[in-house]
Amino acid sequence: MNENIFRILAALILFTGIGISSYFRRKADRDTGEKISRKVDGSVTMTVIKIGGLILWLSPLVYLINPSWMAWSKIGLPEWVRWLGVGIGILCVPGIYWLFSSIGSGISPTSGTRQQHVLSTKGPYKWIRHPLYTFGSSLIISFGMMADNWFIAVLGILAFIGMAMRTPKEEANLIEKFGDEYREYMKRTGRYLPKLF
Predict the structure, then answer these.
(1) Within 10 A of 90 (CB to CB), how many other CB atoms are there?
(2) For residue 20, what are the domain limits?
(3) The predicted structure's pLDDT at residue 41
(4) Could you tell me which of 44, 59, 162, 177 has the fewest CB atoms within 10 Å of its CB?
(5) Are 139 and 13 in contact (CB under 8 A)?
(6) Under a CB-based contact definition with an 8 Å cutoff, are residues 119 and 45 in contact?
């Protein structure tokens, strides 16, 4: 299969996801009139997030510009696995739209909450407390599959681990803001995947 087909599909999926995220984040800033301070997460955490984020976003761009620059991390996946990555990526895009349209102006770039934040329990938030972490990391992992690149896939896994490490602080902030309402919400929802029982 021609590498360019996977590059085109990976670019369309990635940039559509980024476009949706950017639109809703800017809209939340406009609608609320507030910018969330990144100090809430601490300077060390924010430094790690910035450096990790730079590597996370530059690696797919390098692949899209010239796959040979990322040849050192090529896996040699069977074509069907790469097509599975395309399928997962395609499923992530409406998932990303669904979660952003469900949380609305409550989206925040940090573990802090907006002053007018209302607890979202609709859309994917009906079953999962942190669908952004699930869909976002799945999108990057699927990109690694499409690109046949272990480094990009590992970055998706590391991004998820990093977000998972930040989740307790985020949930503590939500408990502080919403109290028992959030505690009850935690009982009936899964953190990253729906509760089965």
Answers:
(1) 15
(2) 3-188
(3) 54
(4) 44
(5) yes
(6) no
Write down the pLDDT at residue 169.
87
- Unique residue bearing structure tokens 């399928």: 87
In this structure, are residues 146 and 82 in contact, taking their beta carbons and an 8 Å threshold?
Answer: yes
**Residue 112 confidence class, pLDDT cut points 50, 70, 90:** low
Task: Please report, for residues 33, 99, 113, 169, the alpha-carbon distance to residue 105 in angstroms, rounded to integers and kept in the order given.
Answer: 10, 12, 10, 20
pTM above 0.90, yes or no: no
DSSP letter, residue 115: T
Query: How many structural domains is the chain composed of?
Result: 1
In the predicted structure, residue 82 carries a pLDDT above the cut 70: yes
Cα–Cα distance measured from residue 129 to residue 14, given in angstroms and rounded to the nearest whole number: 23
Q: Among 99, 106, 164, 105, which Cα is nearest to 127's?
A: 99
Distance CA 114, CA 124 (A): 20
Domain CATH code at residue 59: 1.20.120.1630
Does residue 195 sit within a domain?
no
pLDDT classification of 152: cutoffs 50, 70, 90: very high
Helix, strand, coil percentages for the chain (3-state, nearest 5):
75, 0, 20
Look at residue 47 and tell me if it is in a domain: yes
Residue 177 has pLDDT above 80, yes or no: yes
Q: Is residue 160 domain-resident?
A: yes
Take residue 176 and report the two structure tokens written for it. 């502080």
User: Which structure tokens are listed for 23?
Assistant: 């639109």
Name, in order, each residue with C-beta under 8 angstroms of 169's C-beta and a sequence gap of 6 or more: 41, 111
Contact 186, 194 (CB under 8 A): no
